[in-house]
Structure formats: C-alpha cells, structure tokens
Design goal:
Order of helices and strands: EHHEEEEEEEH
Oligomer: single chain
CATH superfamily: START domain
CATH architecture: 2-Layer Sandwich
Helix content: 25-40%
Structural class: alpha+beta
Strand content: 35-45%
Radius of gyration: 15 Å
Number of strands: 8
Distance between the termini: 39 Å
Number of helices: 3
Length: 159
C-alpha cells in the first residue's frame, strides 16, 4: 500500500535537496513521535551519503520499535531529483513490514518554491492495512514538520 504527500515547500529546490540528505532534518521531521539513534561507528554523518545506515528507533523516545536499515540512493530524472530508501525494518515491532520503498522527489515549483512528493510503499501481508494506517498518521505529522521547517532551509542549506 502507498502513503503519499504532495507538498509545496517554501524553499528553493537545492535547499530541499540538501535537507533530505540531512540526518538533523530526518530527526526533526520524525519527532517527537519517533526518535532514532545511529548504530554506525561514529554515529550520524553530517550529510547522508548513499549506501546503508542502521538506526535504532523508539516511539516517543522510550518505547523500543526495533532497528531499521536506511539504504539510500539518489536518482536524477528530467525535471526532478529523487532520494530512494529501499532498506526497511530489521528487528522489533516494525519487522511486520516486509516491503519498504520510500521516495522523496524534489522538483522546482517555478515560483521559488519546491514541489516535494514523499511516497512510502509498504507491504506487511494481512497486516498491511493496519501498518498503512499508522504510517498515514505519521506522514501527516511529517508533512506539518516539513512545512514548518522548509523556510529555514534556504539559509541553512544554500550558500
């Protein structure tokens, strides 16, 4: 099943592109519902490189949800850039999700803003509708955080 956001963000596309590569932004748009701790030597990088990164997730900072693999790759398409996360849950309660593909597509809205399409495709067998509902709620909270933070990205992520 698919959860999708289609947002206009108040920042230029280059700033949004850098933001989706920022572990700090990942923390900000995930919280306070979910917190993540890096399981990699040296912790979170300043900017996500392509490849694998393991994290431990907690709900509300206290309830263990298990570990997740974030497997990032970038794709340049005509008129948009896409970050793919094709990792997925490794342990814990979220392990019910067996299929995971998260895409964040950035394109120019033509007015100094960014068109941001945030899509999560998941599969959890017979539990898929319940997992979808949980992610749908989380994605709505994520949208609020993205809209709130985006205006600051112009200063934080552009020279």
């Amino acid at each position: 099943m698919r959860v999708r956001l289609n947002l206009l963000l108040d920042c230029p596309p280059d700033a949004a592109w850098e933001a989706v590569h920022s572990p700090a932004v990942f923390h900000a748009v995930s919280g306070p519902v979910t917190t993540a701790e890096s399981l990699e030597p040296g912790g979170f990088p300043e900017r996500w490189p392509g490849g694998d990164h393991r994290v431990r997730l907690r709900m509300l900072g206290v309830l263990p949800m298990g570990t997740q693999l974030i497997r990032l790759s970038d794709e340049a398409l005509p008129g948009e850039r896409v970050v793919h996360d094709e990792g997925g849950p490794l342990t814990g309660a979220m392990r019910i999700v067996r299929r995971w593909h998260h895409r964040m597509a950035i394109s120019d809205a033509g007015d100094g803003r960014t068109r941001f399409r945030d899509t999560l495709d998941i599969g959890a067998g017979v539990l898929t509708p319940f997992a979808w509902l949980g992610f749908w709620v989380f994605w709505q909270l994520r949208a609020r955080q993205l809209r709130r933070l985006a205006p600051g990205w112009s200063h934080e992520f552009t020279a």
